[in-house]
Amino acid sequence: MIVSPKIRGFICTTSHPDGCAANVQEQINFVKSHPKIENGPKNVLVIGASAGYGLASRIVPAFGSGANTLGVFFEKPGTETRSGSAGWYNSAAFEKAATAEGLFAKSLNGDAFSHELKKQAVDIIKNEMGGKVDLIVYSLASPRRTDPDTGEVFKSVLKTTGGDYTNKTLNTDKGEVSEVTIGAATEEEIADTVKVMGGADWELWIDALADADCLAEGVKTVAYSYIGPKLTWPIYTDGTIGCAKKDCERASAAIHAKLSESLGGCAYVSVNKALVTQASSAIPVVPLYISILYKEMKAKGIHEGCIEQIQRLMADRLYSGDLQLDEDGRIRVDDWEMRDDVQASIAAAWENISNDNFNELADFQGYRDDFLKLFGFGLNGVDYEADTDTATAPPSLAE
């Protein structure tokens, strides 16, 4: 069938298999253009592996270190009459490319919070990956979580924790600057958001792997976070999401203590750059900030996407012997975003931006291009007028 983008708010309800494959191949080509990662990982588990930072976290070790990978995600398969989700097609393209180079690549599609999926992952690691993994990336983004023991469902919210907050935002449908007011969360909503997006499930994954003796000596694990500038703090760092990210830091310290003592391993939170992802597109205020950020970083020649960020994280931090931790023990690959000169330029633009000068001060076209690219649209070399196979699937998940 012929697939065109259908956008509703911050979601595109269609995705293009060939475009997603082209997007994956672009990222593979980028990694291959760099030297191999010295002493890089060999058996990798990525939890939340199908898009954005998680997908990049699968591509970099596979094509930069020759690693075998197991990816866990929750995506919608396509059929002959309806397109699947972009992550489904991303994973199909990744598996095919990795297998063509003789790498083990398998995927699990389901509820990563469940005990059952953890057991399935353990079985694959034991029976098909030599028994142990040496890198676990936790990059899960979900609006809800079912507690695997009680069955209770928790839902996350995008709210402040300190009263109503009003600031500029971007209407991404119209490309217009407007104002938005975000309400304050209740204590229950804060706790529920931490349950969904905090570090508890990361700990459960590490415990499940440890109990099954699936962790290699010197194992590393990393989860992703964001801090950003003060203008986004009320909705992010000091908001409900920030509470969850602080809990990830708590979990990181606990996991690090266990792994370092038992296996000489380590656990870190990596603070990454603000980028257009399916998760960030949903957060008020953030899309306008990202549009201005893109303008400034591109002008200074330091703009990065997900694949560039994860290449730098793994090659220059995790496996270089030079982690460059901040005072709170976090890896910082948001360092270029947070440079004083970049943030000073953004602050000045933010103060003055309006619909009259929006296109001068922000890179909305770059934002929209990256947004569409998430779903496989706007890629060079793809014939969007031709029929495409919407029923394509990751080989390991094909029926």
Classification by helices and strands = alpha/beta
Strand content: 15-25%
What Rg is obtained from the alpha carbons, in whole angstroms?
A: 20 Å
Strand count: 13
The low-confidence parts are: none
Count the helices. How many?
12
Examine the secondary-structure arrangement and name the CATH architecture: 3-Layer(aba) Sandwich
Intertermini distance: 20 Å
Strand count, sense and barrel status of the largest sheet are:
7 strands, parallel
Question: What is shown here, in short?
Answer:
40% of the residues lie in helices and 16% in strands.
Key terms:
399 residues; alpha/beta; Rossmann fold; 40% helix; globular
How is this structure best described in words?
- The protein is an alpha/beta fold and 399 residues long.
- The protein has one domain: Rossmann fold, CATH 3.40.50.
- It contains 12 helices and 13 strands.
- The strands form 4 sheets. It has a 7-stranded parallel sheet with strand order 5-4-3-6-11-12-13, with helices on both faces. A two-stranded antiparallel ribbon has the order 1-2.
- The two termini are 20 Å apart.
- The mean pLDDT is 95.
